[in-house]
Amino acid sequence: MKPKILITAGDPLGIGPEVTVKALRNPAVRRACRPFVIGDAAALAAAGWTPALCPLLPVDAPPRRSAAPRPTAGGGAASLKAVLLAYRLVRSGLFRALVTAPVSKEAWALAGAPQMAHTDLFRALEHKEPLMLFSRGGINAALVTEHLPLKDLHRALTKSLVMKKAALFNAALKALGFAGPRITLCALNPHAGDGGLIGREEIEVLLPAVRSLRARGLRVAGPAPSDAAWAAHLAGESDGLLALYHDQALVPLKTAPGSGPAVHWTWGLPFIRTSPAHGTAFDIAGRGKADASGMKAAILFAVKLAGRK
Question: What structural domains does the chain harbor?
Answer without folding.
Answer: 1-137+260-309 (3.40.718.10), 141-257 (3.40.718.10)
